[in-house]
Amino acid sequence: MSETRQTLTHPHAILTVMATSHERPTAREEHAGGSSAGGDKGRAGSGTRPRDTGSAGGGTSAGHGAARLGPPALDPEVCYRALKARDARFDGWFFPGVTSTGIYCRPSCPSILPRRDRLRYYPTSAAAQRAGFRACKRCRPDTAPGSPEWNRRGDVVARAMRSINDGIVDREGVTGLAGQLGYSARQLQRLMVAEVGAGPLELARAQRAETARLLLETTDLRVGEVAFAAGFGSVRQFNDTVRAIFDEAPMALRERARRRRRDGLRPFSPAWAVGGTAGGSLHHLRAGGAGSSVGSAAPVRVTARAGSAPPAVSIPPGEAARPVVAAGPVSVSIRLAFRRPLPAGVLFAFLAERAIPGLEEGDSTWYRRALSLSHGAVVATVTAEGESALWCSLQLDDLRDLTTAVGRVRRMFDLDADPAAVADVLGTDSVLGPAVAALPGLRIPGHVDGDELAVRAVLGQQVSVSGARSLGGRLVREHGRALATPLGSVVGEFPAPQVIAGLSPGDLPMPASRARAVIRLCEEVSSGRLALYPGADREVASRQLLELPGIGPWTVAYVRMRALSDPDAFLAGDLGVRRALDRLGLPGGERQAAALSERWRPYRAYALQYLWSGLAGPSRATGAEGAPATGTAGALPAGARGALPAGARGATSSTRRAMTSGISPNHHNPRSAT
To answer: What are phi and psi of 203, to 5 degrees?
Structure first.
């Protein structure tokens, strides 16, 4: 077992993408690839034998030497070794399907290992479903953590996956997704099938099924309400999809969850998952399971709060016949998946330090904020359960926002990150290695709304953290929409870009030049000329931001890192970076920092977190002139230290609070908004 684990160091090694899989398909193949975009009903569970479309278990991959439509080839030998070792690190990177049973699993499934010739391997769970396999009831492959691959890449497929994960297909359909990306629906279908083995509708279908399962197992909503809340167009479509993917009727899923609760068990929580990849998640695409994956959920009773007004629900064209689900806030609690380790206290402290009054609240052990989504407001509360799980409690005006809300919370906490892959790159570095060893699993603090983050980045220029919070609080009080049902001190939403764009510079409590910069930014966003949503093209957005007055390279990199989830963004001109490098005896100029950061690709944003943490610095670091320098350790906030590994706590006991004061645009931006 240990020998196998040493061999399987990099989950990325299982992907051996062939150049032929990206060649332009023939006209017949193109027609075949586009035909599945016309409906949302899957093939799985139809009574037919699973189709042999994945990478074969015998060591050869179908499609070698010829252009084809289908998922990229996986190395069957590496996949089989991971499966034999039941290596949880590979959960979400591929999905083995067993032809004799018609079931697909996660690599760590504890079931008896099938024969090689009966195994097929798929890059996403949606691809396995498309081939006719149904989910294993024992290992629940749909609960695997998500893939970091889509954040790391910037191509159209990765952008599509990020947007699908955000729920765009349910809101605007495949046509809306294709238009957002600048492709036709047929072109996008062909690209998605070639890359991930499933088209946009099939990926969205998997998300809907998992949202439906979550609601069935954790709420008392009627089946029809669950169907529409999950995004299905009809109850019949809902029933067919649930049976196809889970091999059970919707009410059977609910009864199974009730039996587990009566037995004192959680509705769905494989015991072995807690020791490897904690819990589950909601919808992960590509090497993280195409479709949603849901974590362990607490038994929750859906309630409408007395006295609350029904939410204002925006119903898309053609959906007027849909019932509005729940006339008032409803609550759902789920367990969020992540790959260990995760120093959650550091993220909580970072977010709490910058919490805007009325919009956010928290401390180093929990965090709460309001989100503005398509069908209403959501208040998300995230707490940690030791080091094994994160729990997210959602208060929703409309349950149709559930999928999007969970996806955005996951993005804020960077829960699809692969800390082992980051450690492989940064852990051996002479500058960052000690910090990675002292604080493994450090995440990039993301955001739930790119438009809001961009405004806050400009808003906080040349002011202190507390000053930026005060400015944000005034915006929320004076121009934000009040919550129908406040929760704690969270009472309102951040004003939409359209609202801020309609203000005059005198309406904003800041210097006129910065007020004009904020208003111009919101004008570009509200007009649609500037896109900062999850699937936005990062390079295009960067160029457009730089053209706006009051926005320089620092702000652009900050927006790329936190709003656009770019793991390779780096703030070379940041004051905190300069100070960290100065402490290490390294040249801290912008050009020198940029040159040094090249060796940290493609995880420069994670390197930035370690520099900001103050933990970076070997006992002997070599500077540009070859002179050794002694590094110093930084300190994390006191409340965050409980989440650190035991060996890391001593290193942070006597130095400054670098993590909370260091990751701030208010202290580090060397440029003004003029």
So the answer is: -65, -45
The active-site residue out of 40, 79, 105, 166 is: 105
Res 50 pLDDT > 90:
no
Q: Residues 242, 235: contact at Cβ < 8 Å?
A: no
Percentage of the chain lying above the pLDDT 90 cut: 51
Residue 139 designated active-site? no
CB 125 within 8 A of CB 135: yes
Cis (ω within 30 of 0) for the bond into 250? no
| Residue 574 a catalytic site member | yes
Amino acid at 309: A
Determine contact, residues 447/456, Cβ cutoff 8 Å: no
Per DSSP, the three-state class of 650 is: helix
Return the structure tokens found at 366. 């929990």
Which residues lie below 8 Å from residue 2, measured CB to CB, with a gap of 6+? none
Range in 37-41, 185-189, 569-573, 606-610 the model is least confident about: 37-41
CA nearest to 303, candidates 393, 239, 427, 177: 393
Domains of the chain plus CATH, in order, are 1-296 (1.10.10.60), 450-566 (1.10.340.30)
Model confidence over 114-139: pLDDT tens digits? 999 999 999 888 888 899 999 898 88
Closest C-alpha among 549, 550, 592 to residue 573: 592
H-run or E-run covering 369: strand 366-373
pTM: 0.76
Positive or negative, the CA dihedral 156, 157, 161, 162 is: negative
What is the Cα–Cα distance from 261 to 600, expressed in whole angstroms?
47
